[in-house]
Design brief:
The chain is an alpha/beta fold. It is about 35% helix and about 20% strand. The protein has 20 helices and 21 strands.
Length: about 550
């Protein structure tokens, strides 16, 4: 086993000899691993084998560079032959796939790139690991921003920016603030951050994990090794049901049994809840009655910035800010620095990002909302206006009932588009129940019958291409107008056609992007380009 090998002094857990190493996949993390390991051939690495997927042009060029250093690169095959001391698996390869299982059978140990990077990092380096279904990137970027404001060499890594291993190789980081996915955490063994943040755990990536329980367990693995790190802290969003159960379990343990401190953020009652009052927690982060973010940590209550002074909007971003602030305070940053840095943090691309105005209609790019829970949070962020929401893309097959209810409560209209258009539009067709109306705070009344409306945009009728769907296939469900469109461009035009000056058109799809785009980033940038083109045509 690797744990029994002689270790390099001054690193977390780096063996002097890595032996025979297998890298699965040649995506972003696979390239980082292979690029780090190939120069070690003839020294710490006895043999390096990379098993990649399809031989694209870029992948083949990268492979040639590896081969020139003595590595073996194979494309296409998913049957691992030979024996390896260590396998580093890319997150795109599911644990239950035949490829992963073949690699695991051929390897003494199989880990993720995050795990390997942590092992190779300097002994005195500190790690903040952020996981959760939604909000990871914003929280990581915000925490790194706060830490840099305190004068620390902090870097946002993982699924944001450089891979963890690229940052470790650079050697100029004091604090790694890592966005870690369930895919990566599922293949960790020794990974032990100084601060672990769990934002929320709601259904996502269920096919990869083969069920919600395995998905949740992968997220919670970020806490597994905290007792090995002196002074380690867990920051836990207690407004989330799954995370709150973890808080209760930690509360039932003695400090000695637990082995680390924890900061619960909010309570079952919401972000205004103080877990000290709710269940006697030593620490707590919450939103005060006066709208001030507060963190009780180390025997002191720290008043931070007011929620209305944050540039990132919505209750979910208040939670993200409380989590980032708690992590920074746990690492010793003073409250004044935390407060100023929180107020100076601007929205990230594709996350409730204002992206232009068309004839007085504000457009917002929330393409990163690739699941229902993320879209629910986006809808709740618009308390001063009812947006026209673009929903669709590649369907993840999750329950749409909460989305339908939230849209009826918060939206003016929805436009369902892409592969998911038919199922999403169908979900809005049942008549609105009295229970749903009561939840929204509206009087119970019979739903209006569906009507068919021809939709045209002021700049010209949008065209439909490729799907055979008709933009005229629309209906009114209660107070909510429901439209269908073929593609993103058609959906934007449909939304603009029913929006008035002062309204908001919100792209928050609740779906993956892969029906029409290669990534949520590509989808978001396409949306911004479409908005810009229509703004120019409208003259403003």
């Amino acid at each position: 086993m690797m744990a029994a090998r002689a270790l390099i002094e001054g690193r977390k857990h780096a063996p002097e000899s890595l032996g025979r190493v297998l890298v699965l996949g040649l995506g972003k993390s696979g390239r980082a691993a292979a690029g780090y390991l190939a120069p070690l051939l003839g020294g710490r690495v006895q043999e390096l084998c990379v098993m990649a997927g399809a031989p694209g042009e870029d992948a083949c060029a990268f492979a040639e560079g590896l081969r020139s250093l003595g590595a073996r690169v194979e494309f296409g095959s998913e049957q691992v032959k030979g024996a390896f001391d260590l396998c580093i698996a890319s997150p795109g390869i599911p644990q239950f796939s035949a490829f992963y299982e073949s690699a695991a059978a051929a390897s003494t140990e199989i880990v993720s790139e995050v795990e390997f990077a942590w092992r190779e990092s300097a002994q005195d380096a500190r790690w903040v690991a952020v996981t959760g279904t939604n909000g990871k990137t914003t929280t990581v970027a915000l925490a790194a921003h706060v830490l840099r404001a305190a004068g620390l060499a902090a870097k946002a890594v993982g699924n944001i920016g450089d891979t963890c291993l690229e940052a470790v190789a650079a050697g100029d980081v004091q604090v790694y603030v890592a966005e870690v996915s369930s895919y990566q955490l599922a293949s960790t063994a020794l990974f032990a951050p100084d601060v672990a943040v769990i934002l929320n755990v709601t259904p996502d990536h269920l096919s990869w994990h083969q069920g919600f329980e395995a998905y949740a367990a992968a997220k919670l693995r970020v806490l597994a090794n905290l007792p090995a790190v002196p002074g380690s802290v867990a920051v836990l969003d207690a407004t989330d049901d799954v995370v709150r159960r973890t808080v209760r379990a930690l509360r039932a343990q003695t400090p000695a049994e637990r082995g680390f401190s924890y900061v619960p953020v909010g309570t079952a009652a919401g972000l205004a809840g103080d877990m000290r009052a709710a269940c006697g927690s030593d620490n707590a982060a919450f939103l005060g009655e006066d709208g001030t973010l507060r963190v009780a940590w180390g025997g002191r209550e720290h008043d931070l910035v007011r929620a209305c002074d944050l540039q990132i909007k919505g209750e979910h971003n208040v939670a993200n800010a409380l989590c980032a602030a708690s992590a920074a305070l746990a690492l010793g940053v003073d409250a004044r620095t935390v407060s100023h840095a929180l107020a100076g943090f601007a929205p990230l691309e594709h996350r409730l990002e204002p992206c232009g105005c068309v004839a007085g209609v504000r457009c917002v790019n929330d393409s990163k909302a690739t699941n229902v829970d993320a879209t629910l949070k986006a809808l709740a962020a618009f308390d001063d206006v009812r947006p026209v929401v673009l929903l669709g893309g590649r369907d993840k097959g999750t329950d749409l009932a909460p989305l339908v209810q939230a849209a009826r409560c918060h939206a003016k209209a929805v436009v369902c588009f892409g592969e998911a258009a038919r199922r999403f539009a169908s979900a809005f067709q049942p008549t609105q129940s009295a229970d749903a109306a009561a939840v929204c705070g509206a009087p119970s009344s019979p739903s209006k019958p569906s009507s068919r409306t021809e939709v045209r945009h002021a700049l010209g009728s949008p065209s439909i291409s490729g799907t055979g769907e008709t933009l005229a296939d629309s209906g009114s469900t209660g107070e909510l107008l429901v439209l269908r469109a073929g593609h993103l461009e058609d959906a934007l035009d449909a939304a603009l056609s029913v929006a008035s000056a002062g309204d908001v058109v919100l792209l928050s799809p609740a779906c993956a992007s892969f029906d029409e785009f290669g990534s949520f980033e590509e989808r978001g940038r396409a949306f911004k380009a479409l908005v810009d083109a229509r703004a120019q045509r409208a003259g403003k």
